[in-house]
């Protein structure tokens, strides 16, 4: 269940090489900064609507729209035909593939979003990998920090894997959807094509096709 190919189709991201020599998908998170800096070509080929802030170490590809009030810090790469909506807050070490949405009042940092992923309304998404065509419902939050400040564990029944990461949110497989106002607790792993009902607080590992009620 924790094999990368069981959670993601790596053909659905142009950043697939970040997964080379990786056993668990969360192991790409400490790589993001170095990976982005090695391939970034700063500049904005997209369209700006209104007043926005874009740092010098940000790459934005063609067809992407940046709406009024958005703030984008780097190092960050944003692909083609994305929409960064009004009031979005994009922080450091963010890797966004093509055709993605970062919505109004959504904050993201230290993440990889596969193609077609959407965090469209009032989301917090940090220290996570979001698969292709994932849709995070309005108000879905990904918690990335344990209250006791210990490293994040991934719990599979009675067994636990220590990720060694003090900040780690969730791994969300391709085509998974969450309902409004969900909370994905640190170390959550959702397989492909899962559905999480609104208002659920989720932790643990869920195999592909799970319906989390």
Report on this model:
- This protein has 213 residues and is mainly β.
- The protein has a single domain, classed as UDP N-Acetylglucosamine Acyltransferase, domain 1 (3 Solenoid), CATH 2.160.10.10.
- Helix content is 6%, strand content 35%.
- Strands 1, 3, 4, 6, 7, 9, 10, 12, 14, 19, 22 and 25 form a twelve-stranded parallel sheet that branches.
- The longest helix has 8 residues.
- The chain is globular.
- It starts with a helix and ends with a strand.
What's the short story on this structure?
The protein is mainly beta. It is built from two helices and 26 strands.
List keywords for this structure.
2 helices, mainly beta, 12-stranded parallel β-sheet, 26 strands, 35% strand, 9-stranded parallel β-sheet, 213 residues, UDP N-Acetylglucosamine Acyltransferase, domain 1
Global outline:
globular
Topology as a string of helices (H) and strands (E): HHEEEEEEEEEEEEEEEEEEEEEEEEEE
Return residue spans where pLDDT drops below 50 for at least 5 consecutive residues: none
Question: Can you tell me the CATH superfamily?
Answer: Hexapeptide repeat proteins
- CATH architecture heading: 3 Solenoid
The chain-level mean pLDDT equals: 97
The number of domains is 1
Compute the number of strand runs: 26
Give the amount of beta strand, in percent. 35-45%
Give the distance, in angstroms, between the N- and C-terminal Cα atoms. Answer: 20 Å
The count of helical stretches stands at 2
Rg (C-alpha, Å): 16 Å
Oligomer designation: single chain
CATH fold-type name: UDP N-Acetylglucosamine Acyltransferase, domain 1
Main beta sheet strand tally, sense and closure: 12 strands, parallel
- Text of the CATH class: Mainly Beta
Derived structural class: mainly beta
Percent helix: under 10%
């Amino acid at each position: 269940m924790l094999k990368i190919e069981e959670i993601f189709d790596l053909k659905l991201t142009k950043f697939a090489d970040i997964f080379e020599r990786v056993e668990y998908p969360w192991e790409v998170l400490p790589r993001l900064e170095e990976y982005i800096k090695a391939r970034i070509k700063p500049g904005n080929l997209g369209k700006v609507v209104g007043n926005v802030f874009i740092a010098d170490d940000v790459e934005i590809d063609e067809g992407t729209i940046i709406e009024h009030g958005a703030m984008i810090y780097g190092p960050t790469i944003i692909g083609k035909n994305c929409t960064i909506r009004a009031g979005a807050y994009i922080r450091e070490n963010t890797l966004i593939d093509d055709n993605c949405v970062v919505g109004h009042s959504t904050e993201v940092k230290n993440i990889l979003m596969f193609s077609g992923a959407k965090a469209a309304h009032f989301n917090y998404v940090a220290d996570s990998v979001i698969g292709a065509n994932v849709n995070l419902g309005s108000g879905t939050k990904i918690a990335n920090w344990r209250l006791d400040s210990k490293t994040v564990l991934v719990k599979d029944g009675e067994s636990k894997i220590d990720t060694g990461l003090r900040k780690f949110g969730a791994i969300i497989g391709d085509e998974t959807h969450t309902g409004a106002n969900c909370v994905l607790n640190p170390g959550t792993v959702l397989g492909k094509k899962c559905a999480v009902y609104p208002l659920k607080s989720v932790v643990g590992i869920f195999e592909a096709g799970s319906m989390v009620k």
